[in-house]
Amino acid sequence: MFLLHDSSPFYLFLDIIRAHDPGSANLDGAVLRLHRKTKEKDRAQGIQGVCLRGNVMDMAVGIIIGAAFGKIVSSLVEDVMMPPLGQLIGKINFSDFSLSLDGKTYESLEAARNAHAARVNYGIFLTTVINFLIVAFAVFLVVQQVNRWTKKPAPAAAPTTKECPQCAMTIPVAAKRCGHCTAQLV
């Protein structure tokens, strides 16, 4: 018999437990605690199972190394590559390249920012594109090297048996007649 004290799922759950085990009628709290502990244990085991798989851990290490590598590449482009390139072109700072949308001219990007001017900063975009190209090239080289290290599966061996079209039994590929039903094979 279901005793619906309330329409909440808690009471519905307790009523179902009482219907199957009348002795648990006075153990509402104990049944609920047992149910919660079981659910929490199952959830914890599920999370642990997913997180401790090799692929997830490999991905986490890759993300951390990738973030550090991104900072190294940014420093390489902004601090090592762009200054000499700017010197070669004519003592230009690429990060100051921008287009003012209000029509005024500013000496530097900082001066435009201090004046709260709307600008299209294509110099910073150019630096970011160079960062991306270097990272993409480095990732390409890493993937290419990893592909070289991984073993390629051996080609599948040619089948040595086939099925008889009449009796569906396994027979050698070179057979001219089935040994089970004596059917002539083409």
The CATH architecture name of the domain at 65-149 reads: Orthogonal Bundle
* Beta-strand fraction estimate: 5-15%
Radius of gyration (CA) equals 36 Å
Strand order of the largest sheet: 1-2
Cα(first) to Cα(last) distance is 72 Å
- Whole-number average pLDDT? 76
Which geometry do the CA atoms define? Answer: elongated
Helix tally equals: 5
Oligomer: single chain
* SSE succession: HHHEHEHEE
> What name does the CATH topology of the domain at 65-149 carry?
Non-ribosomal Peptide Synthetase Peptidyl Carrier Protein, Chain A
* Poorly predicted sequence stretches spanning 5 or more consecutive residues: 1-5, 24-28
How many β-strand runs? Answer: 4
The largest pleated sheet is described as:
2 strands, antiparallel
User: Which class of secondary structure composition applies to the elements?
Assistant: mainly alpha
> What is the name of the CATH class of the domain at 65-149?
Mainly Alpha
